[in-house]
Amino acid sequence: MGEIATLSELSTEKQSAWIDRLFDRMAAMYGARFADMWGGLDLSSVKSVRREELSDMSPDEISRGVAACRTRDWPPTLPEFVKLCRPAIDYERAFSEAVKQMQLRKSDCDQWSNPVVFWAAASIGSDLSNLPYSALKARWQNALDEAVEKVRSGQLPREVPRRFDALPSPGKTSVPKEEQMRRIAEVRKSIAEALGAKV
């Protein structure tokens, strides 16, 4: 099976298996502290709510949440875990990354922390390198928010596309005369065939 965008693409059984693994991981990390959170509650109901609330998340987002727990002394509640999976965006930091990585992209050396930063940068275009953050702040925030939603919904890819070299400017290339003549002959032949005439 290919990579899934969100848990909601899985069957209920497979989603439940993800939540079971998440609970097993948290129990191993936090021990009794994690078990004490559910004292007096029906664990199957707790897991069901987690499955529903996390179903729109990608495996990468859930992995990010689990990784963030490594430095926490106490297990997170559901709202805390959601914030760990999807931390608040630092718009200015993302803007700085975008400016730097778009410059590096020219030499095919760019490395993006998240594809949404690339897609937001691509939507801003050349203004990104020509205007300061203060001038682009509102536009950048809108572009980044839009990129986040489009990546989550599958309208944009979850990876940064390969860089393609730009085509040379008109008049900056040359084709040998023999190749020009061959191409012209092919075009003439195609036109003649389309019109039903002989070459």
Q: What report would you give on this structure?
A:
The chain folds into 2 domains: 7-85, no CATH class; 91-153, no CATH class. It has 10 helices and no strands. Helices cover 62% and strands 0% of the residues. It has 199 residues and is mostly helical. The longest helix has 21 residues, at 133-153.
Secondary-structure map:
Layout (H helix, E strand, L loop, with lengths): L11 H19 L1 H6 L5 H12 L4 H10 L9 H8 L5 H15 L9 H10 L2 H4 L2 H21 L23 H19 L4
Question: Quick recap of the structure?
Answer:
The chain is mainly α and 199 residues long.
Share of helix among residues?
55-70%
- Please give the alpha-carbon distance between the first and last residues: 53 Å
Count the beta strands: 0
What low-confidence regions span 5 or more consecutive residues with pLDDT below 50? none
How many structural units, i.e. domains? 2
Return the average pLDDT rounded to an integer. Answer: 88
Largest sheet: none
What is the overall number of helices?
Answer: 10
Radius of gyration: 26 Å
Relative strand content: under 5%
Descriptors:
199 residues, 2 domains, 10 helices
